[in-house]
Amino acid sequence: MTPSGIYTHPDGLAFCFCVGVMVGHWLAAFEGPELHLIPGGWSNRKVVVPIAVVQFGPYRWVRHPIYSSTMLLFATYFLALRAPLSLLFVVAVCLMYYTQKAKMEEDLMIETFGEKYLEYMGKVRYKLIPLVY
After folding, report:
1. Membrane-crossing residues (predicted)?
2. How many helices (H) and strands (E) does the chain have?
């Protein structure tokens, strides 16, 4: 805090915030455009029957990168706001919600693609957070 009472962020924290926001937005933007490469893979309908197992782009590291990028954006915003309790709450809620949603999607993918999706799950072990979960 400066003598005038204005709080300034350490340079490292400001840099991490900028990197986190850029990476989160990049991942979110990177997922959508690739889905048009798969016939029927992009639709405005709420439920889309999958016709291919996507294994390129961020899908090489996590099975649900859209959820991962959303959580990264939330986490980065709350870190920037210096709101650790809000961060913990939102991450916990996101993990509970996205875990259930991912389970439903994975059941649909297994039903649709069977062994091919199970093989993909074996290759890409992490659902939401690379190297963690």
Report:
1. 12-30, 71-98
2. 4, 0
